[in-house]
Amino acid sequence: MTDITRDVVIVGAGVSGLTAANELVKAGKTVAVLEARDRVGGRLWTREIDGAMLEIGGQWVSPDQDALIGTLEDLGLETYSRYREGDSVYIDADGALTTFTGEIFPVSAETQREMERLIGVLDELVAEIGIAAPWDHPRAKELDTITWKAWLEAQTEDQEARDNIGLFIAEAMLTKPSHAISALQAIQMAASAGSFTHLVDSDFILDKRVVGGLQSVPIALAEKLGGDVFLNQPVRRIEHDDDSVTVVADGMTVSAKRVIVAVPPNLYSRIDFQPALPRRQHQMHQHLSLGLVIKVHAVYDRPFWREAGLSGTAFSPYETVHEAYDNTNHGDSKGTLVGFVSDETADGLFELSEEERKHRILTSLSHYYGEQALTPEVYYESDWGTEEWTRGAYAASFDLGGLSRYGADLRTPVGVIHWSCSDLAAEGFQHVDGAIRVGRETAAVIADELNA
Asked: In the CATH scheme, what is the code of domain 107-200?
């Protein structure tokens, strides 16, 4: 067992923890980053599968993500635009396919008016409630004790409008059924992106990718820390008092003045805190959970859909794959599609054999792109629900009533213990941008405390 001493020990080598570590080093503090996995990056992971480079986890950069964009510039990492030339595809409840351009799906004039009206209502609520402290709004408890599904039902009788608007929050972002999240949680999700309008604009929310993959960010951040990043070191116990902390991992013990727990909240219970965390933290953490999504990668000899004038962008709340995009890598002659299957639909697929699941997913892609989609050269399913040190995707959200009840305490330190991850972010919630923001803010708080 190796024993070392640092000013601050960070649990988790994802972007948030690595950002905090680098900021603390800039402030003249010594750090140690302990990571349970054999790699850095957390929910960012670029892998080569059967000769194809695939981004297993997060991958996109939006134009409002200033913290991420600034970090990419600082690290000298290049970006490229997602392919979006041509028509998008929409499939309705009857299975009819329609091509379209723009953000609004090709629905009837009446349904389009309802969708636009609902987007306007949600944009007004986002502007009114804001992102900094949605739990402080006078309507917070009201909106947090009605499901996203029930809220939409109260707004309109148009089923297709409800299905499509609901898609952008439930299946696409929080990856939970619409009856399992609150209206306030949905509004917070939209507010973290600036507006609901941004969420429905795939050209905005999924704007660019990083050459070589987004995992290049944590890899570069870890390289700056040199030998202060320790892999294969799952943290088992955190012993703490008023002035110091001892963090015990499988192969080492770190003594420090502060600790940053930079992992998703659903993993906090994997750590034995001595003394135990306060009652409120115990309760709050039990009301946070990650969603479930299968990220599907299908690689073909060429991006054949472009030959048909399609951008690769496809949506349908009625399909197994509810959304899909052209995910062809920078400078690659092969064509890659990425699609998503979430929450209860994913549950059903995981009850099938691997081959039957693949068949169902590729059949769904063929509904968008034609029979050529049935025969990819490379096929892979990212299933973060099986990852021991993640256990879901994309981020943790509260159950009904949890945000208004506990939201104000999400980042409250417990003595020398601080918390940092994208799941706790305001702007950039559940994105790398949010992870960077929280990492910087947490590091600044600790540096001030240690300098006092």
From this structure: 1.10.405.10
